[in-house]
Amino acid sequence: MKVGDLVMQKCDGMTSISNVVKEQLNMGCVGIIVSIEAGVYFSYDGRSRGRITVRWSNGTEEMIPEFYLELL
């Protein structure tokens, strides 16, 4: 992933949650990556993962681990 990419939060494997919670978590919104901080998180197999700042279509901005996102 790189700055400027369009993303959404992954929905596969997620439990069923209410629309209010989905909205609070920016789920279903399209976002654009505005910055990437590399090597912040480490996965179970030791690979480093980045933290990404996304500006969502509902006007909010959120810092989120890259493994929660999928490219559009």
Lay out the secondary structure.
Blueprint: E1 6-9, H1 19-24, E2 31-42, E3 48-56, E4 61-65, E5 69-71
Antiparallel strand pairs: 1-2, 1-5, 2-3, 3-4
Please give a structural write-up:
This protein has 72 residues and is mainly beta. The chain has one domain (6-71). It has one helix spanning 19-24, and strands at residues 6-9, 31-42, 48-56, 61-65, 69-71. The protein has a 5-stranded antiparallel β-sheet, with no helix packed on it. The model has no long low-confidence stretch (mean pLDDT 80).
Helix segment tally? 1
Task: Going across the biggest sheet, name each strand in turn.
Answer: 4-3-2-1-5
What is the N-to-C succession of helices and strands?
Answer: EHEEEE
| Spans of at least 5 consecutive residues with low confidence | none
* Radius of gyration over all CA atoms, rounded: 12 Å
What is the mean predicted local confidence, pLDDT? 80
The strand count comes to 5
* Number of structural units classed as domains: 1
Which descriptor suits the 3D outline?
A: globular
The main sheet comes to: 5 strands, antiparallel
Helix-strand category: mainly beta
Which percent range describes the beta-strand content? over 45%
- The first-to-last residue Cα distance is 11 Å
Share in helix: under 10%
